[in-house]
Amino acid sequence: MSKSLSKTRSKPQQIRIISGSLKRSILPVIDLDGLRPTPDRVRETLFNWLTYFWDGDFSDKSVLDLFAGSGALGFEAASRGAQHVQMVEKHPKAVAALRQFRDKHKLSQVRINDHDAKLALKRMDHSRFDLILIDPPFADEQLLSTTSAALPSICKHGTLVYVESAAAVELPEQFELLRQDKAGASHFYLYCYNSESRV
């Protein structure tokens, strides 16, 4: 995260789950460079979008939170009833905090993968998800590009992909843009994967 962005976006020490079974549960935010939990307003907008496209039913959904960080997005999905949530996070302190919150709230549907996102993607040979959450460190645009290129291998027809970035983002042609918005320094998007699209 760049110095300019870190000055304009203060980092809270804790955030709250917005809705679902964990509503108002406090999620601690550990002090790590580049860790920027998705703000309440952006999370609320995202999950309003998802509620619209899924008719409010998360119960059969499989979710991948590829840069979990504080876990704000993945735990929000779990709170709303997602069947399976897989989080990927490489920093040991962040991983420990994620596991502590998961175990405290007995979230058996949440798995936490303590690997680099690029390595985790290579190991997901047969995994397919209903929702993929991508919010990489703002300063690493190359990481977002690499991740985007690997997406088709873990998508199925109709997979929704959320992307949050400091710069404007456009996914490959087979991803249809459904929604987009901007809040402060963050651009955020919801795409849908079309396996029948010709590229």
The radius of gyration is 16 Å
Run of helices and strands: HEEHEHEHEHEHEEE
Strand line-up across the major sheet: 5-4-3-6-7-9-8
Structural class: alpha/beta
Mass-distribution shape: globular
Q: How is the biggest beta sheet arranged? A: 7 strands, mixed
Binned, the helix content reads 25-40%
Describe the protein.
The chain is of the alpha/beta class and 199 residues long. The chain has one domain (16-193): Vaccinia Virus protein VP39 (Rossmann fold, 3-Layer(aba) Sandwich). The chain is 29% helix and 27% strand. The chain contains 6 helices and 9 strands; from the N terminus they run H-E-E-H-E-H-E-H-E-H-E-H-E-E-E. The chain has helices at residues 3-8, 40-53, 72-79, 92-104, 117-122, 141-150; strands at 14-16, 26-28, 62-65, 84-88, 110-113, 129-134, 155-165, 175-183, 186-193. It has a 7-stranded mixed sheet, with helices on both faces. A two-stranded antiparallel ribbon has the order 1-2. Residues 1-9 have low confidence and may be disordered. It is an enzyme of class 2 (transferase). InterPro entries: DNA_methylase_N6_adenine_CS, RNA_MeTrfase_RsmD, SAM-dependent_MTases_sf.
Describe the structure concisely.
Helices cover 29% and strands 27% of the residues. The protein is built from 6 helices and 9 strands; from the N terminus they run αββαβαβαβαβαβββ. The radius of gyration is 16 Å and the shape is globular.
Any chance you could write out the topology, listing elements then pairs?
Elements: H1 3-8, E1 14-16, E2 26-28, H2 40-53, E3 62-65, H3 72-79, E4 84-88, H4 92-104, E5 110-113, H5 117-122, E6 129-134, H6 141-150, E7 155-165, E8 175-183, E9 186-193
Parallel strand pairs: 3-4, 3-6, 4-5, 6-7
Antiparallel strand pairs: 1-2, 7-9, 8-9
